[in-house]
Amino acid sequence: MSASTQAMQRDDVQNPGMLAAGQGEALWNAQPPGGGQSCASCHGDATASMKGVAARYPAFDEATRRPIDLQDRIRACNARRPGAPDMPHESEELVALSAYVGLQSRGTPTAPDPDPRLAPFRARGQALFERPIGQLNLSCAACHDARAGGRLAGALIPQGHPNGYPLYRLEWQGMGSLQRRLRNCMTGVRAEAPPFGAPDFVELELYLQSRAAPLAVETPAVRP
Amino acid sequence: MTAVSRRSALGIGAGALALVTVKPAAAQFVRKDGAATLEAIRAFTGGKEAAPGKIVMDIPPLVENGNSAPLKLDVPGLGDGVFVRRIGVFNEKNPLPETVTLHLGPRTAPRVQTRIRLADSQTITAIAELSDGTFHSATADVIVTLAACVEG
Amino acid sequence: MARALVNAPKTAKAGEMMEIKTLISHVMETGFRPGMDGRIKPRDIITEFACEYDGEVVFRAALHPATSANPYLAFETRATRSGPMKLTWRGDNGFEQTETVDITVE
């Protein structure tokens, strides 16, 4: 990443991700259109209650006996509020709330959930990471382990860490989740990307998280 | 370069990988010659000559994504009582030559920062008009690299 | 209303330059880009930014489609008198937004 993109991330007034986080804060405190509970009604002040939370997601979800990522956790909470409209994946609202919750972990080291029930899912995520995909028959590892630091059509191949999401991407001219980023990598090698929220994505996220630990959370980051 | 197709396959490394890349959204239209740029500059200066120097333009020579390039302008060392009236920034290849026009004055420092779009690698020109009626220019060449792995 | 971030000093010494940084959420749709349906999306940009302080517009910027999405502008103006500083963005489709910062000059 260039010095200017880093500078854009570092200064909150220059970082457009902070506009999304600000929108997330407003949503956190707002009643849903039906007049039900706000996020704050149950969780109080996010700067206290959500501190460090994003750093340990995806986590084990007792209800589904599977890993759940932060966005789906927020969607589940939202769905329990009577009168609250659905928050689809990648919707402005969901991305904004995730950015705001993520911001409360900024600077906190990524801390994978040690629950042993997650181990098989994490192993599956690793297998997905190492499996060649798409017409180009490339695995995630082929770029992010073997060629990290190299260049691809002018773009620097990063190590492929998830600790800045959701983030502002210059190419998108907007915010996006980690899953949106992963879909870009999949279409990049001409592979069919699973739909948002698919179990494959959550397992990949789980593996990426353990691979990135203990890097500090950077949400909302800026990327080219 | 024209951006007729949103997709083009580029090789990387030793011919090992071919990958789907697309030009940034800003690259939909690329002007082929600078005639409109010269015209826009003439309109800004009223046909007066702009002398190279005095104004300093800071823009990275290599931009990771044409959707957003940081631009810094400064006119240091102005004489007593002289201030910058306007700074016009012009591009060579975007659909329109005007990039941004800044109106300053005696109460404002001659230093401004913003972010601009670049449809392609090109030369950027900044021209300052001082309160003494003189015009001063700076140019910078910027190379825009293609983004990889984008939504296609 | 669009979200905006403004960074300005709350207090300043008379005569010193104050740095004002502004960021506002806006798509800055260029008017040259096809949408999903292949048709050109109509232009929707902010066309003007102005900073009014102590009885005068001290800084103004005319924006074009070449300004990046979520426009960022940083400039410096001299502290003269205590009072409100009004930052206004105007644009296509009747876009207009004003943020006010109260400046105390010592």
UniProtKB/TrEMBL annotation, chain B:
Residues 42-149 form the Ig-like SoxY domain. Pfam families: SoxY. PROSITE patterns: TAT. This is Sulfur oxidation protein SoxY. The lineage of its organism: Bacteria, Pseudomonadati, Pseudomonadota, Alphaproteobacteria, Hyphomicrobiales.
From TrEMBL, chain C:
Residues 9-101 form the Sulphur oxidation protein SoxZ domain. InterPro entries: Ig-like_fold (IPR013783), Ig_E-set (IPR014756), SoxZ (IPR030995), SoxZ_dom (IPR014880). Pfam families: SoxZ (PF08770). NCBIfam families: SoxZ_true. This is Thiosulfate oxidation carrier complex protein SoxZ.
